[in-house]
Amino acid sequence: MSILGVIVEYNPLHNGHIYHIKKSIETTGADFVIAIMSGNFVQRGIPSIIDKWSRTEAALLSGIDLVIELPTIYAVSTAENFAYGAVKLLDSLNVIDYISFGSELGSIDKLYKISKFLLNEPEDYKVILKSYLKRGITYAKAREIALSEYFGANINDIVGNPNNILGIEYIKSLIKINSSIKPVTIKRLGPGYNSMKTGDSFASATYLREVIINKDYSILSKYMPEYSVEILKRCIDKGHGPVTLDNFNKIITYLLRNNYSIENVFDVTEGLQNRIKRASFLFNNADEIIGYIKTKRYTESRIRRILLHVLLGIESNIYSRYDGPNYIRILGSNKKGLELLGMIKSKTEKPIITKVSDYKKILSDTYMFEKDIKATDIYTLAYKNDPVSGLDFTKKFIVIK
Asked: What is the mean pLDDT of the chain?
C-alpha cells in the first residue's frame, strides 16, 4: 500500500489538475491521495475565487481521498514558506510515501540538483548573487541570473518558471527536514501558469478566474470538469462568489491609512513601508496601490501578499515562532479518506481537528489556528448574501461517500 501527497489550491479546479492527479497515481501506484489545500486566501496574494469547503468538495470528486487545510500563515506567504509549511504538514502525518507536483520541466533530477545546491550555497555563488541584487532587481530574478552564470549555462527555463520554482522549494523542504517522502514531478501540459492563452482542453487558473470574474460561464465547461463548474455556479448563485481582492479595497485602505504598523509586516524591507503608506493616501483600491508601489525589485505578487498580511493581521515574526503547522485540520474526506484518517490518528504526534469548537481543548498554542478562523470571517465580508462570521464553527468537514 502506498500513499501520495499533493499540495494544491484548486482555484478553481480544472482539467490540468485532473490530469495531474491521474498521472500522479499512475506514476506512483498510490492507493490513497491526500491533499494539503490552501484555505480562503492563497499564495499569489489573493482570496480564493470560492470558499475552501466548496473547493474541498471539488477535490474529493476529482479523486482526492482526504483534504487537509494548509494554515493561513503559510498559504499566503512566500514560495519558500508556503512549501515548507505544506511539506512539513505532509511529513508530520507519518503515512506519506510520495509527494507529486506539476512542473514545466517534468524531470526530478535537475530540480533535485538545484535544490541541494541552493540549500548549501557556496561563497563564490553568493558573491555573484549579491552583485545582481545590488542592481535593484527581484531576488528571484537575481537568483535566476546568478545560477546561469555560476553553472555556465542558461537555466532560465528551469528556475524562471513558477511551477519549477515551487518544485525546488518542495524538494529543499524535504531535504531540510530529512523526510523519507519521495518527490515525483509531472510535466505540466497546456498554457503556462499565468498564461491568458488556452489549449484544446487546458487553460490556466489565471485565465479561468478572469473568465469567472467577467461572468462568461459558457466557456468554463471546456476547461473544467462539470462538477467543478456546478460547484462554482452554486456559490455564485448564493452570492458567495466570485471573491476577489477588490472586495477588500476599503478595509485594506482603512488599515493602511489608520496608522497600521506596516514596517512590522513580513517582507516589508528597505523603506518599502513608506511607499506603501504613501500609495494608500493616493488611492483607495488594491490594484492602484499595487501599481504605484511595484518596481523591478518589488513584484506585484509580493505586494499583494504584504497587503494580505495587513488585512489578516499576520505579524512579521510569525515564521520564526513556528517550525511548520502545529495541527492537522481536516476539511473533507471520502470513504477511503476516513480509513486514512484512522491511520493518521495512530501515527501522527500532531493534534487533529475535525470539530472546530474543540480547538481550545486540543491546542496548547491557538494563535495559528485562530488566524484561520479570522481569515474565514474576513473572507465572508465579500459575500453579497449571508456575510456571517463563525463559519468554521458551523461548517462540518465534508464527507463524500
From this structure: 93
Binding residues for ATP: 7-20, 102, 163, 188
Q: How confident is the model at residue 189 (pLDDT cuts 50, 70, 90)?
A: confident
Among residues 319, 351, 383, the one where a domain terminates is 319
184 & 60 share domain:
yes
> What φ, ψ does residue 89 adopt, rounded to 5°?
-65, -45
Do 96 and 133 sit in the same domain of this protein?
no
| Secondary structure (H, E, C), 228-251 | HHHHHHHHHHCCCCCCCHHHHHHH
**Same domain, yes or no, for 209 and 68?**
yes
Domain that includes residue 271, residue range:
246-319
**What is the tally of structural domains in the chain?**
3
- Name the binding residues: 7-20, 102, 163, 188
Q: Is residue 165 situated within a structural domain?
A: no
Here the cell at position 90 is 505532509
Q: What's the average model confidence in pLDDT over 125-135?
A: 91
Q: What are phi and psi of 40, to 5 degrees?
A: -85, -5
The predicted structure's pLDDT at residue 199:
65
**If DSSP codes are grouped into helix, strand and coil, which group holds residue 43?**
coil
Q: Write the burial class of residue 182 (CB in 10 Å: 0-12 exposed, 13-18 middle, 19+ buried).
A: middle
Q: Are residues 257 and 390 in the same domain?
A: no
Alpha-carbon distances, residue 214 vs 151, 168, 207 (angstroms) = 45, 34, 11
Percent of the chain with pLDDT over 70: 97
pLDDT tens digits, residue range 43-96?
999 999 999 999 999 999 999 999 999 999 999 999 999 999 999 999 999 999
One domain for residues 52 and 186: yes
| pLDDT score of 394 | 94
Q: Which of 319, 353, 370 is the last residue of a domain?
A: 319
Side chain identity at 96, as an amino acid letter?
I
Residue 149 in any domain: the answer is yes
Q: Calculate the alpha carbon distances from 277 to 119, 258, 290, 293, 366 in Å.
A: 35, 10, 11, 10, 31
